[in-house]
Design goal:
seven-stranded mixed sheet, eight-stranded parallel sheet, alpha/beta
Length: 600
Amino acid sequence: MKMYPLLLALPLFIASCGSDNGGTESGMGGGGSTPTPPAALGTVISTADRITLDVATDKVCYKPGEKVLFTLTSGTLPAGARMRYRNGNDVVADEAISGTSWTWTAPDADYTGYMADIYTADGDKVESVYAAIAVDVSSDWGCFPRYGFIASYGTDKTEAVRNNEFKLLNRCHINGLQFYDWQYKHHWPLGGTPGNLLPVYKDIANRDISTDVVKGYIDLAHRQGMKAMFYNLCFGVLDDAAADGVKASWNIYKDNARRNQDHHQLPDSWKSSIYLVDPSSTGWQDYLANRNNDVYTALGFDGFHIDQLGDRGTVYDYYGGKCNLRTGYASFINAMKKRHPDKSLVMNAVSNWGAENILGTGNMDFMYSELWDGESTFADLLSILNANTGYAGGKKMGQVYAAYMNYGHKTAQFNTPGVLLTDAVMFAVGASHLELGDGHMLCSEYFPYSELKMSAELQKAIVAYYDFLTAYQNLLRDGGTQTAADLTAASSAVKLNAWPPALGTVTTFAREVNGKKVIHLLNFRKANSLSWRDQNSTMPEPDTLTGLVLSLKATGVKTLWAASPDVLGGAPQQLTFRQEGDRITFSVPSLKYWTMIVAE
């Protein structure tokens, strides 16, 4: 499938999910004099990284005031163990814990992330952290979406298999799932009818799909607090569509004489190629809405994940007129929302094509873009988010990127440094990554493809990254204004660089959020490419910097702290600093891929 880039550059306005604050983003800069290394700077409390325990929660997100059940899944609590619950660096509760499970009542604040860590304290200055886990208290997923997928529904997907697959999805707080290629036919998605469901049917690739397995995945998702979204194209039909009531007058063509219906060619071994109809046709909209009504009647899906195929060039309707697919997408979305107003809608903007029209409807739960060659740089991860937020008119919603790592890979496993650096940048600028699914990570636009594996190292690291994304969502994704960070390094061996990323540097990205200055340090010192795709799986592992002395232009700072998904499971560390005129000097405990500094 040919993808076409769309260059976007609009001011960013982000509205908070919990309030109406927002701002216009501007560029970042650096400057100031090189700081003198302080005599004794470090953390207030000496914190030992003893991450030896594994802990899980019963759900991926909670409503305000709901009970959170924690379960120790491996290891034994040390004597004197406590669990501390923090919003940012502010402790909201601190309790002694024992046994293998315990509960905590979520606070009343909606759309809030918390980091909970298990620790022991030895006096006032020494503590050890043994585990950390995030908690999301949000009544709706659209502000902080963490999207995953399901792609296989054969009878081999037993209840035990499904439960095992969901362990990682739950642990990474995935709060919505795209059910990819579950459908019987694109124009007749339900396998059978609501009163006569087919136990097993073939999908587009002639794979077996078990209706009971689809139902089992939906039920499991709901028990753990996840949305279940069914996937389908907005304009796809199979070669037998006429027999099922699809009219030829809805078709679109590559010519104005109806000689060549636009289609997406698929292998001969598949059920059919996909033929395209006009998404703006009211007849087609009514037809598919009726088919979707059957889906909602028979299955417990929460909404419709709408797909497209990118820029199709010039196409024509049945009567020879040119079709405007962008406006057709908006018309289609509005028709789907009108027919099922209580259901969620998400639409893919392939290479961000049509995003302005899609988001302009105001009917999307969040922004979703599938990125390809034309959007392959780290800098694109911010510029597309900026543009989409502008298209959405400041509506409170998150950004998800379908971005396939190690595409065209040459190895058997994902390259861990490539994945972690991409997630670090993506999360730091305020987006999330569609990458985790039913037993595998995405490396292809065909979601069932699972040949590329996650190493044990990557699986462990990815949990910490999603904990970080969730726990600090209010600093990462909940408003604020991008600002200039006047930051310098004491060591000439470390080159700081203001956004966008540059090779050989520590790149900085900063925002003012609710009176806090949030500065992200992103380690590109050993990076070999400015493409997030890492197509050849060669992105090297960075060296860890420790004790990096920095100077920041800032006044009135009362508290300074750091956190990184690469250490302490993401738990925060309070820092000492020295004020010298209008600058503060401090030491960063460590920087591997990504460290966040927060000055309050």
